[in-house]
Amino acid sequence: MCINDGGVMNKSSSWSSLKAKSLLQRFLGVVVGGVLLVTCGLSYASDTHHQVMPGDTLWDISEYYYGTPDEWPTLQQLNAIADPFKLQPDTMVDLSAFDPFPLSVLYRSGDAWLVEENGEKLLESGDTIEVDSVIQTGPGSSLTVQMRDGARAVVPSNSRIVLKREGESGITFQLEQGEIESYVPSNRMRRRAYNIKTNTGVLGVRGTHFRAGYSNETLVTSVYEGNVAAQNRIGTAEASISKGEGARIDETGGIQVVRLLPPPDDVDITSLPNEAIQIDILSPMQGKTYRVQIASDPNFLTIIRDQRSEGGQIQLAPLSPGFYHLRIAAVDDFGIEGDSAIFVIHHHGNRVSVKQEEGSWVFEWLHRAQITYRLQLAADHEFTKVLLDYEPQNNGPLRVSRLPGNEIFWRVVSLDERTGMTVVLDTGTLNDTGQ
Questions:
Q1: What is the mean pLDDT of the chain?
Q2: Residues in Cβ contact with 404 at an 8 Å cutoff, skipping those fewer than 6 apart
Q3: Which end of the chain is less packed: N or C, by CB atoms within 10 Å?
Q4: In CATH, what is the architecture of 353-430?
Q5: Looking at residues 211-237, what average pLDDT do you find?
């Protein structure tokens, strides 16, 4: 028998960035010029038009105002422009086609409905949502929507939102219950309102990543990028909430601004045999609740699992093996969610991959820190006649060759050095005769 311990397994972008910066400088100049010309009754800049400066292209204008250059065909058609590369200086480009409505559904997990007078319609990816629509998400669900200018919103489970127009081209999410997480591009049009409103307070944002939750007449928010302006709708209190801060607005009229709790710094993530995932926060903050979310994308727009726990141990429902993105945050006594620790995980369900290559059997599994493993081969399923009991010396694939041709039983056993607990990771047979 032979064992082999294997080893562990543009230029265009730069130009676009410079053009965007140049465009910003020119745009600010237009605003100043517009202010100076107001005394003469003229205005050359608004939230619905852009004054062309030398060197502008429709790609630049689209990227600056809407966060993507891909909307240039709409601008070209709306303004009847023959050559999108050659724009006549001082002409005005009409931007009014870029209404935030209708919103489009990017992703849905679980149940999410469009609430209508005659019932509820289950939303699907690609569906559009018009102004004054009501969105409702069910338990354990998640819905991600996108506006025309690139702003996106994730609506977690048990949330209800009414979509309203704010001014000519802004949007308001009337949060009746639950939560909303928003990603607003920093180059979103300056005069386009983006608000979260509840009966208790209003959050106004410009280029930011933040969360808002509303329950029991209390609005809470966590700001991760940018800035949020908060106003109590009952009293006259106002506050500016910056990155790394959170706030609580209650029915009494006050606004409390606090620092966000730090992310957990000692976390153990384990794939269980039933394909569930267990999260152990090894140094939990006493009395704090933790929230764990798993998504299939790094921006957490496609949230698959979302769970809270009052202790330092959380077990998530089974998931298919694969790579996922996971984030964990502590929640303070106000219900304000703190900064997240983010991980890329390979969820394998503690299964061992076994395949035959060139006369050898290759065993491979995910090795975890502070865990030792042993591969055991036996002539019987009770492992009383052990042929091999081997501890790999590294984390790579393990090759076993020159095995006898009769049926052989194998298993991989793990030993947790911290707890002393021994677990059979996976088991199976080689040269199965089928008898």
A1: 84
A2: none
A3: C
A4: Sandwich (2.60)
A5: 92
Residue 32, token pair as written in the block: 């100043």
> 153 forms bridges with which residues in the sheet?
145, 182
Burial 164-189 (b: 16+ CB within 10 A, else e): bebeebbbbbbbbebbbbbbbbebbb
CATH 3.10.350.10 matches 11-94? yes
Q: Using pLDDT thresholds of 50, 70 and 90, give the confidence band for residue 129.
A: very high
Which residue, among 296, 312, 99, 307, has the nearest Cα to 189 in the 3D structure? 99
Residue 155's contacts (CB-CB under 8 Å, 6 or more residues apart) are 112, 135, 137, 142, 143, 144, 145, 161, 178, 179, 180
Percent of the chain with pLDDT over 90: 49
Cα gap 376→387, rounded to integer Å: 7
Number of Cβ atoms within 10 Å of the Cβ of 217: 14
d(CA 377, CA 220) in angstroms, rounded, equals 57
The pLDDT tens digits for 233-253 are: 877 889 999 999 999 999 887
Exposure of 354 by Cβ count < 10 A (0-12 exposed, 13-18 middle, 19+ buried)?
middle
Q: Could you tell me if 255 and 238 are in contact, meaning their C-beta atoms sit under 8 angstroms apart?
A: yes
Cis-peptide, bond into residue 102, ω within 30° of zero: yes
pLDDT tens, residue by residue, 167-185: 777 899 999 999 999 998 7
- Rounded to whole angstroms, the Cα distance separating 277 from 57 reads 50
In this prediction, residue 2 carries a pLDDT of: 66
SS3 call for 396: coil
